[in-house]
Amino acid sequence: MGEVMKPQQRQLLYAGLAVMLVIIWLFYSANGPQTTAVLAGTVRAATLLALGAMCGMIGERSGVVNIGIEGQFLLSAFAAFTIASMTGSLFMGTLAGIGMGLMMGWMLAAMAVGLKVDQIIAGTVLNIAALGLTSFFYDRSRSLGMGKYTNIDLGPLADIPLVGTVFFSRPPLTYLTMALLFVVHIALFRSVWGMRTRAIGEHPGAADTVGIDVLRLRYLNVTLAGGLAGLGGSYLALEAVGTFSRAMSGGRGFLALAVMIFGRRTPFGAYAAALFFGFTTALQNQFQLNNTFDIPPQFVGMLPFVVTIIVVALSGLVGSMRDPAALGQNYEKG
What we know:
- Helices cover 72% and strands 1% of the residues.
- It has 334 residues and is an all-alpha fold.
- The radius of gyration is 20 Å and the shape is globular.
- The mean pLDDT is 85.
């Protein structure tokens, strides 16, 4: 996957997957028919997290921290839902969401790369602006209405018991996300662009001396990464939910950053981590729906975030991935 996991990290990943399988088995034993719903919910939740993680990893591989993914999700979801409702086209809504993500990516690049604003502050500005704008226009959007993408069966694959329903009978944006995992992996680790991207994240000065325009490439990468977050916002509004509500991103942008770190800033590693976190989200939803164990809903809603804290803490104890050497550092062209 581009970088080799340390033995301790492999053990942590295997332990997490083992716990996940045990929980699935216990859940299936107690209530078999709902297992498919939980696993389908896992893929549904993991798709958004994977898109956010890929957005974050392209930025960080370039040396730019992006904590504005939450705001990119939210404002892109609003744009996608609004345009889809006005035009009656889910496709146009998806393009609008991607376009909004690209615009916000450019804004982050303009602040963090062009104006040399602290990257954490720049991302925070995006989050606050997105929450404020969408909250202001929320009342108007409530009068709009639009359907959402429906499942597309992939021939005989969709007939496979359990696995077919979970992976091969999904809406189109989920398939697109899975395809993007391969595209981003190949681009990052098997292309000239990827080599240059990783170079400007590690040693921008050395990259500059061999003719790579560091600032221009950072601008480009952060902007393109915003398009992935924009696709995530479109997915959230037009495929996962089918509507827009105030603050509907619900902290998933920050969870995507945890997924990116736990996945070692690689697309496939991030998707594996996204499935793990997505499973906790799906399990939480199922517990709330069925009032399982008679636990107060506030405590059940904490489950994904508690798991995030525990996993990130454990990954730090057993040895975390080294950040790109120039991550978060402004670059002045000599």
